[in-house]
Amino acid sequence: MIFLIFLIYGVLARHVPYANKSFNSEELIQYREEVRELIYFGIDNYLDIAYPADELHPLSCAPSWRNFDDPMDFGFNDVMGNYSITLIDSLTTVAVIGDRDRFKQLVDLMEERFSHGFDTGSIVQVFEVTIRVLGSLMSAHLYASDPSKKVYLGDEYNGFLLDLAVDIADRLLPAYLTDSGIPVPRVNLSNSKTPLERGFNPNNNIVAMSSPYFEFRMLSYLTKDSKYEEVTRFSFEKAWSLRTMLNLVPSTFDPDTGVMVDSMTGIGASVDSFYEYTLKGAILFDDDDLLKIWQEAYSAISINAKEDWFFSVISAYGGYPSTSWLDSLSAFFSGLQVLAGDVSEAIAHNIMFMKLWGTFGALPERWDTNTAEEKQYINFNTGIPLYPLRPEFVESSWYLYRATKDPLYLNIGHRVLQDYKNKMKTECGFATIKSVETGEQEDRMESFVLSETLKYLFLLFDEDNEVHRSRDNLIFSTEAHPLWLTPEMKRDYQQNKYFNDTTYINHLDELKSGHKEWILKQKKEMNKQINKHLQKIFKYEAPIDSETRKDALKKLYAKRKLLEKNTELSFIEVYPVHEEFNNTCPVTHYDSSRNKGFFSPLMSTYGKMFDVNRRYDLEKPKYMENAPSIETEPVFYDRWCSPNSQSQFPSQAVTFDMVLDSTGNYDVIKYFNGSISGESFGGRRKLRIQRLKRGDVDWYGDYVSDRDFEGLDYTDIRPETPVSINRQDIYKVVKLDSIPIPKGQQVYIKSDLLSNDFNVSAVIADPFLNGKKSAFKRFGYNKDGHVISDNTLFVNFKII
Ligand SMILES: *[C@@H]1O[C@H](CO)[C@@H](O)[C@H](O)[C@H]1NC(C)=O
Ligand SMILES: *[C@@H]1O[C@H](CO)[C@@H](O)[C@H](O)[C@H]1NC(C)=O
Ligand SMILES: *[C@@H]1O[C@H](CO)[C@@H](O)[C@H](O)[C@H]1NC(C)=O
Ligand SMILES: *[C@@H]1O[C@H](CO)[C@@H](O)[C@H](O)[C@H]1NC(C)=O
Ligand SMILES: *[C@@H]1O[C@H](CO)[C@@H](O)[C@H](O)[C@H]1NC(C)=O
């Protein structure tokens, strides 16, 4: 009887339709299966139509080959080595979705295709081949030979994938045989010992100099041959040793001489995987040295580049913004922040990209963060509207969903899935979006759509995937190939490793003997550049005259005021807003029967959910006009947003960064009873400050009232040349080194550090100065210790 009831219940349950956006297991399974179909659709069409070519043309439904006529066509040729890259890159996707038959079939195809290894005569890019080919081969090898995995092949697998990994690695490794030990960017796979002409190998970026270390070290663990690890580690360490005094890594170097070519840095293109693999390497290899580098590097980039919603592209020397673009690649960073345990920052960073995806139905390759208003005054590089099917936003949303279980991330996944089904899917594949402004497609389907984008999307919906239950330290490579090491594998490597390739032994010996001198020389050169640079910024080079600037600020300010007053802002397409943004979720027809009491924590309690919309002109392109934003889509919003939620009032004040630079190492800044204590002041502290008037709303969402001005002493008691203090405005410090200062806390600085003896200077980063800085160094203080600068009192910044 009981059995019967279960049986009937089981039959019924299968047919009970889920309510849309309830995200119960039935619904998730449906989405997962839809992703699975897309994956098979892509792989099958590639194999039927394009194989053995590298890629599939998704619009013309034809094979896409490397450009044999023009070896310098790097956009294609760097990744397309005439080795069926889409097949190679898709292997682990089939493994992750757990389809053993299909995995076996693809592995068999690999064995047939690569009986002669990678002797293709192609000139390819070392970094791209490392992540797409070497990473995939090792990951597929692990899957095929690990009995704990669903797709384990047992006796049916002879280990040839690892041999292929060795084959490709040996063709790539000679890139490191340079005078500096920094690899050249490209090699000829058939003749990699002969250096290429200069045209193929101009400069290399910090990612290519540092990050192949991750895959190559893994190969050493799998083969016991430590030459891969040793050679690439030398370059990794050299790359890190080339950091500036701010602990920032410039993006580009000449591989022959090690001389810096471009000082730009950030977390996007050309720098991204340096951060990624420093932390992931620390985890996979249990390496404390790498962890320490990660901590220093993450701290430095956060202090210097972190905005509320993203990281700017900055100068590695000055730490000021050097362009205003936001790379879509940098969307990966929130995933990394989750791995680092910095979930609250990861959430904020991901929201920026959610808003962009909601606006464009994809991510522009580069988005200009300046509003139209600001663009009148700031002439930085503008955006690139291309979306080449990149995975980074889905990847981060998957990490965040695993960390928070907030249904908002499932809704992101659902939207991305709809867009892939409706916008990117073509007759035979998935098409790059040529312009997110028009939705126009382009006839290219890079291998990472199958390797990464759809894999992460699948995992987002596949609650029970073995990846989510793995007890190994499983880490996804930057191309989304899972790698892991068991304690036995680590022990085996430590006990049995060898290094007997004389070419590389001799090369490393030579490099190491000259290394100290080399670094000294580089540092000297760098110091020269830094001095030049500092001289320049402290002379206050305003690119536009001060009247224009004042005018611009006034306009911007007026516009923000207007925005706050406007009750029908574009971001609430669905509901009118009451009481100036008082609700995160201004629900008008909330249906309590549909919600069982669990709300999306982010939608319901995150006070700054709509700040991105307020700060930036997120205007939907014409063809997207009727698409709701991800977070305000009614069927999701009604269900998951608590009607009692509150959104904080948006800040209205003009915000500046004040940078304190010191050449010494002093105990300088603390704020009491908070989590930060600045033990040392080795170079730089950055304060984000707000200029506030009565009636403004500050960064915490509080009104500035007479009370904030009460009891302030307006006398500058500095010994020489005291100034008269402006009584209309106050300064409030809201962040220290990019970390928010809790409401009501004070920031303290030692008084002697404000004297010139210690060579402390402060500058403000002002959006209207083209990233240059205006001098802001005269400090005073009143009898209560409140710091005075710019003729204005800091209400929460004191000397002790
Ligand atoms: C969910 O929404 C889709 C699209 O609007 C609709 O076709 C489907 O019937 C809905 N499913 C349920 C169970 O309500
Ligand atoms: C490219 O690869 C295909 C398939 O393996 C092969 O037939 C062709 O000869 C290769 N082309 C060149 C120029 O190497
Ligand atoms: C790569 O090297 C091989 C062997 O020397 C040569 O035949 C081939 O032409 C080279 N490829 C290119 C694109 O130069
Ligand atoms: C290097 O050592 C390995 C492992 O002991 C051995 O298999 C290989 O033949 C050696 N190679 C050379 C060139 O000595
Ligand atoms: C800081 O915390 C301590 C102990 O919790 C407390 O005694 C003290 O009053 C606090 N100081 C400030 C400035 O809030």
TrEMBL record:
Record key words, sorted: Endoplasmic reticulum, Glycoprotein, Glycosidase, Hydrolase
Superkingdom assignment: Eukaryota
Enzyme Commission number(s): 3.2.1.-
Protein name, entry field: alpha-1,2-Mannosidase
Enzyme class at the top of the EC tree: hydrolase
Compartments in which it is found: Endoplasmic reticulum
Entry's family note: Belongs to the glycosyl hydrolase 47 family.
InterPro entries for the chain: 6hp_glycosidase-like_sf, EDEM1/2/3, Glyco_hydro_47, Seven-hairpin_glycosidases
Keyword Hydrolase: yes
